[in-house]
Write a structure and sequence with these properties.
The protein is an alpha+beta fold and 364 residues long. It has two domains: 96 residues, Malate/L-lactate/L-sulpholactate dehydrogenase, four-helix barrel (Hypothetical Oxidoreductase Yiak, Chain: A, domain 1); 216 residues, Malate/L-lactate/L-sulpholactate dehydrogenase, NADPH binding domain (Ribosomal Protein S8, Chain: A, domain 1), CATH 3.30.1370.60. It is 36% helix and 16% strand. The protein contains ten helices and eleven strands. α1 packs antiparallel against α2 and α4 runs parallel beside α5. The two termini are 37 Å apart.
């Protein structure tokens, strides 16, 4: 059974985005973040939930709180940007929340790309920043092509042929603007078959995993019990090709920026007190340097419609352009609310009590 065919966990009544944002912002404030920063983190975390990246939204709140309260993350960073060339900059996140650091990096990339046409911005001393899609989407909605990657905040994959987890799920996201009233074409993939957040969701909800996601480090046999994930390692997409892609992205996001890579990566799932020095990079390209944006998007929409209207292959649901599902989910969840599994709802209620902030029930 593939990932898309997996049964979904039971959910409680969907919750409106403002309720989720309020809880997250209050939790961040309780951990020492200034109001504007707390609200920005909350906005981006809930955007992850609205767009279907459920393993990277409010699901991560308890983990972020543990690391903030444990001293692993700086709640009031002085983020610095060094422009080292006409289209190149390096952001030092001062160990702040990754959402804040990457927001600054994306803004810097957009500014430089508008100025000279293209920009590469590296990042060091950051933290987990949620789904990669968030940051390329920011660029695409400004008429820029965005490309992003990051050294994942824990290692769960070996280099091809190895047995030691020295590589992360290092994602790759690409977004291309599709016009003023259209969502961007947006691809956001882990370099492993599934992200580790998906494994954590299965563990929280007591759901078994299919074969082909995780294998034992000892003998290579499949692991389907998410409670045993520490015994295994994730498999790369496309065999050695996915492993090679994770390696190259990790060197560009980590090593090139003076950030962690390989054995230097701190597992933020298990560690609540150590700085991770997470590295990212983001690339911005101004479409208008090639042709007027309106011309480009009009041509691209015709090409995409041709792809969408292709005869479906038997046994499939037909062609789905990257970003279509993300846009449809966002529209539906803004209207109907975000589904929250009962175990996560209980975890959030316990967290609210521990932080002495109003629970979700009082925000509905």
């Amino acid at each position: 059974m593939n990932a898309l065919a997996q049964p979904l966990p039971p959910t409680s009544a969907p919750l409106a985005a403002p309720a989720l944002r309020g809880l997250i912002a209050d939790a961040m404030r309780a951990c020492g973040l200034p109001l504007a920063d707390a609200e920005r983190v909350a906005e981006l975390m809930v955007e992850a939930d609205l767009t279907g990246a459920d393993g990277h939204g409010i699901f991560r709140l308890a983990q972020y709180v543990r690391r903030l309260r444990g001293g692993a993350v700086n709640p009031q960073p002085a983020i610095e940007v060094e422009r080292s060339g006409p289209g190149v900059a390096l952001v030092d996140g001062d160990n702040g929340m990754g959402h804040l650091v990457m927001s600054r990096a994306a803004e810097t990339a957009a500014h430089l790309a508008r100025e000279i046409g293209v920009a590469w911005v590296g990042v060091r001393r950051s933290n987990h920043a949620g789904p990669a899609a968030l940051y390329v989407d920011m660029l695409a909605r400004r008429g820029l092509v965005g490309i992003y990657s990051v050294v994942a905040s824990s290692n769960h994959m070996a280099a091809w042929g190895g047995t030691t987890s020295l590589l992360g799920t290092n994602p790759l996201a690409i977004a291309i603007p599709a016009g003023e009233n259209a969502p961007p074409v947006l691809l956001d993939i882990a370099t492993t078959v599934v992200s580790y957040g998906t494994i954590k969701k299965h563990a929280l909800n007591g759901m078994p995993m299919p074969e082909g996601w995780l294998v034992s480090k000892q003998d290579g046999t499949p692991i389907t019990d998410p409670a045993r994930s520490s015994e295994g390692m994730l498999l790369p997409i496309g065999g050695y090709k996915g492993s090679g892609l994770a390696l190259m992205l990790g060197l560009l996001a980590g090593t090139l920026n003076g950030a962690a890579f390989g054995s230097g990566v701190v597992d933020f799932n298990a560690d609540s007190s150590t700085e991770t020095n997470t590295g990212h990079f983001i690339l911005a390209l101004d479409v208008a340097r090639f042709m007027p944006l309106e011309t480009f998007t009009a041509v691209m929409r015709r090409q995409l419609d041709e792809l969408r209207n292709d005869t479906p292959l038997p046994g499939t649901e037909g062609v789905r352009i990257p970003g279509d599902r993300r846009a449809a989910l966002r529209e539906a969840r803004l209207k109907d609310g975000v589904p929250i599994a009962p175990p996560l709802r209980r975890q959030l209620d316990e967290l609210a009590a521990a932080l002495a902030i109003p629970p979700l029930a009082s925000r509905i």
